Protein 1
Amino acid sequence: MGLKDYKRHSRNITRGPRWKALRMQALERDGWACVKCGARRRLEIDHIEPVRDRPDLAWSLANLQTLCAAHHSEKTRIEVGLPPLNPKRQAWAELVRQTGRNVEQKG
Ligand SMILES: [Zn+2]
């Protein structure tokens, strides 16, 4: 299964007002920082047990953790079975994401 298929599983969860409220709860609990590195920027909420495997835990706060974008994509890649990006590609992906974010903010 590819990355797109994998993400499809959580998309049903992560859109809609119910997710927004739960996401806020997770951010508050984790002190608005990545639980792995303490980063406070570009935070994303991760399902510790992926929705694909444990749809019953999709709405459980205990199954959520705050990760920065880099740690989140790293974890997702491992779960999908893709090798971690090598540092050069990771830096490039990071740059592309930041550029995209800047464009969003301007718009
Ligand atoms: Zn991190």
Note: The mean pLDDT is 86.
Protein 2
Amino acid sequence: MSKELFWTDTHAHLEFFGSDGHVEEIVDRAFENGVKRIITIGDSLESSQHGVKVSERYDHVYAAVGIHPHEGRLVNPEVIAELRELAQSPKVVAIGEIGLDYYRDHCTPSEQRNAFTEQVKLAKELDLPIIIHDREADFDVFEILDNESFPLSKALLHCFSGSAETATLALERGFHLSFSGTVTFGKSTELKDVAMEAPLDRIMIETDSPFLAPEPYRGRTNEPSLLPAVGECIAEARGMTPEEFSVATSNSASAFFGLPAVN
Ligand SMILES: [Zn+2]
Ligand SMILES: [Zn+2]
């Protein structure tokens, strides 16, 4: 018996879609396209608050709360206290997105490291997994997690676009990887190989919407309803049906974020 499509978008910025009416349209359209669960991501205090509100309104929307490395200098004890408060919602499943971005320097590396460290501590205290934004900062990300003795099985490298070598190292160390639309781009042959070979129970998929629309929608505003294009690309490379791959990656997400398993 063939399985039904059940995609999970583990990384969408629903706050971008603004007014509530528009968010509803985005969430409904995704659901109709088989995207049965969405995790909306916090990158600031405002977007974290928005995410919790939206997740409490829709059964199949969950939230992660956190401050992006671009906003690192804003992290202080009051902000951490607000995140801790927001995380009390039963719909909050992770702290994120947090991490380091040395490619863009909106904040200094030391501001970013401080913001990341404080939020890793919070996740540990709350026993929540973390969603990591890592751009050109692998070594420092690994070092901070080690210093904080954070369990790496609870760490997800989102929008993974590193080399095969980095993927092997990250998987050996226990990380989970999430792939976005970049895997569908023509030039991404190495990344496609990584997505093809990584253990199924360690990988997830995401849109990172509104950014990074997958082929053949490249250039337009991305949204969760376009997630199947990411999943179908990897499913084909792995010789799986979209249905099988959607359920397998949704179950990776279920195990990682503590959500109900999918049949
Ligand atoms: Zn990111
Ligand atoms: Zn993001």
Note: Residues 153 and 222 are 29 Å apart (CA to CA).
